[in-house]
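Please fill in the sequence for the structure shown.

STRUCTURE ENCODING:
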């Protein structure tokens, strides 16, 4: 079985700072493998262990993304493919187009795994776009994957239920974090990761004549959050009534 897993070298959202104008300070910001992508890598490795084969890690990123690729290789992936481009300067469609082109070049794959969304942007758009661009079935939000022969049975975690679907191989699957517990590579595995093959590709080679992505990303703003700082004073019964009235006026509670 040949398995591809798409990962992202993402900004560490827990360490991200914002200036007074609401602009995220991306320059020099700490980076890491997108948190949820570790679950996708782990599931790829579990499928490999169950069915034998190869796991290829594919990412679109700057040269710094090789840090994430090496982490996935240390976890147990066999090969890495880096499409050298800045994902922060592209929309999700162009990112998906580059990933799809890289997957076509290195394929065919039996299973293509993604996380439900990157931990920094969390649009959740890339996996279904990959399915469309590759002409493959897409199953999202998988909490369990069982491959049997030429098909896969997938349990999907929906908001208030679990749905079981079956789809033929090859297919694209996005996984939720509940699907597994990602492993931690040992020191020896980390050292061995540098010896595993890594392929560098360019957008020009994959999508000749494609031109700039549409739309271009011109900038981003952090969501502004401000407290009303309303203080209710008086006896408990009186302040409780004031709070309920205030919440009703805001539409939080029915009048």
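FILLED IN BY: designer on duty
SEQUENCE:
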């Amino acid at each position: 079985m040949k398995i591809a897993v798409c990962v992202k070298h993402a900004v560490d959202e827990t360490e991200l700072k914002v200036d007074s104008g609401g602009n995220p300070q991306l320059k020099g910001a700490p980076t890491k493998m997108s948190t949820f992508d570790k679950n996708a890598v782990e599931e790829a490795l579990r499928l490999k262990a169950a069915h034998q084969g190869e796991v290829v890690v594919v990412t679109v990123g700057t040269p710094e993304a090789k840090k994430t690729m090496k982490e996935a290789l240390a976890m147990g992936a066999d090969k890495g493919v880096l499409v050298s481009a800045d994902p922060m300067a592209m929309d999700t469609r162009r990112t998906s187009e580059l990933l799809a082109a890289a997957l076509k070049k290195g394929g065919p794959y039996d299973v293509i795994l993604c996380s439900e969304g990157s931990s920094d942007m969390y649009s959740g758009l890339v996996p279904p776009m990959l399915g469309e661009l590759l002409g493959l079935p897409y199953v999202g939000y998988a909490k369990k994957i069982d491959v049997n022969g030429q098909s896969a049975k997938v349990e999907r975690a929906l908001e208030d239920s679990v749905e079981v679907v079956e789809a033929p191989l090859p297919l694209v699957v996005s996984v939720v974090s509940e699907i597994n517990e990602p492993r931690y590579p040992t020191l020896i595995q980390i050292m061995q990761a540098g010896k595993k093959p890594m392929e560098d590709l360019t957008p020009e080679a994959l999508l000749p004549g494609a031109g700039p992505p549409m739309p271009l990303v011109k900038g981003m703003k952090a969501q502004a959050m401000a407290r009303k700082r309303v203080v209710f004073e008086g006896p408990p019964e009186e302040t409780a009534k004031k709070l309920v009235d205030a919440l009703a006026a805001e539409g939080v509670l029915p009048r």
